[in-house]
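Question (not urgent): is this output format expected?
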Amino acid sequence: MMVSILFDYSFLTVVIGTTVLAIATSMIGTLSVLTKQSLIGDTLGHASYPGVIFSFMIFQSRNPLLLMLGAMFSGYVSYYTVHFIKNHSKHSYVNALALVSSSFFGLGMVLKNFIQGHEAFSKATQAGLQKYLFGQAAFIQADDVTLILTVSSLCIILFLVFYQRYKLFIFDRTFAFINGVPIKFLNHLTTFMMISLIAIGLKVVGAILISSFLIAPAITGILWSKHYHKALIISVCTGVISAFVGTYTSSIVSDLSTGPAIIVVMSLIAITSFLVKLKQSSGKGGKA
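Got this back:
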């Protein structure tokens, strides 16, 4: 039975979707971690949920593309709200992130409760909207996988096209600017890719945990190598392994959600890597 699951259509559908998503988020996640923008991913994840509900309220449809566009719209609004608060008040960037994250997430919950039982939305089925909150990868369908493949592939291609510029952008912005690297464009491109991947990952992992897809593999890669290309490879491998193991484990263990299972695997790899590197550093210090 354990082996037969590997050839099951439902398993293959889920594992393809989660693996491709993990590859893209692992790559883009290295940008957010190395530019010290990790917390913005968490904020965007929480803040994208009201966009899903708002899109449903407008179109009264659970079409994955429409819900993704709603999530992206909400993500962009939250992103610029954070920077508006930071630039026009005495509050720190962290305070702005915390305020926007909790406010937008609360708005999403209010909108979700509002449409439940409301006669204006009674003709449109609301089943499945809850999955965008906590994620339910086991129930993603062919349309969801197609959207994940399309958006993830686009982000991967964009990343590879601008790879050399990103390397300069990450490690020496002054040198990059002198050499004509479009800093503002790369900032906007990174934001676009993060918001896009978060938007398509909501149904898989949920608004609460989606940021871990960006952060955990990237941290693992950076822990094991100081060279960006090697860190990138390790990050992607971590994402792929976590997606497969998490999906497989949730398939053989009843009542185990796929998204959280993947996050647990990612986190265990990251924590183990940290402890191993810490022990290695302690050993070198003791010998010295």
